[in-house]
């Protein structure tokens, strides 16, 4: 992809790879192949621009730390799928939509305004509940929720395969 436009062969290869990866993880791609390939073109264009695949339907800052929450698959995918049957950009859809039983509906933006985000994309949550104390730090994958207790987060999430910068310290 190195600064060049994406060929149809490259696009088809990435489409199949991402589709298989999604299905292996229990997710479904939008059944409209041309629509989905256009989204992937946007992901690849953002990868050329920024070095990471920021959601093509959102405005990326170009600073990975600020955009971690919108690197595909974004932090909002699962809640959007649960509530609306599709993620914000409709790359990922529910089984009912994939089977043509339901239509994609507009999904409201969950990403907080820039002024409410801390570096790293997410909103700082405050809780009145005292967190338990662990002998090792607990790390949570912000994409799939995988938890592990170790000194550092894993290099790659064993569940959804995102990189370690998508983990946050938990508890």
Task: Please tag this protein with its features.
171 residues, alpha+beta, Ferredoxin Thioredoxin Reductase, Rubrerythrin, domain 2, two-stranded antiparallel ribbon, 5 strands, 30% helix
Account of the protein in words:
The structure is a single chain. With 171 residues, the protein is of the alpha+beta class. It folds into 2 domains: 8-110, Ferredoxin Thioredoxin Reductase; 122-171, Rubrerythrin, domain 2, CATH 2.20.28. It is 30% helix and 9% strand. It has 5 helices and 5 strands, in the order αβαααβαβββ. The strands form 2 sheets. A 3-stranded antiparallel sheet has the order 4-3-5, with no helix packed on it. Strand 3 and strand 4 (147-149) form a beta hairpin. The longest helix is centred in the first third of the chain and has 18 residues, at 33-50.
Side-by-side strand order of the widest sheet: 4-3-5
Termini separation:
39 Å
Structure classification: alpha+beta
Number of domains: 2
Strand % is: 5-15%
Unreliable spans: 121-128
Give helix and strand order, one letter per element, not per position: HEHHHEHEEE
What's the CATH H-level homologous superfamily of the largest domain?
A: Ferredoxin thioredoxin reductase catalytic beta subunit
Radius of gyration: 17 Å
CATH class placement of the largest domain: Alpha Beta
The share of residues in helices is 25-40%
Could you please say which CATH topology of the largest domain applies here?
Answer: Ferredoxin Thioredoxin Reductase
Largest pleated sheet: 3 strands, antiparallel
Average pLDDT metric: 87
Number of separate helices: 5
From the coordinates shown, what is the CATH architecture of the largest domain?
Alpha-Beta Complex
Number of strands: 5
Gross morphology is globular
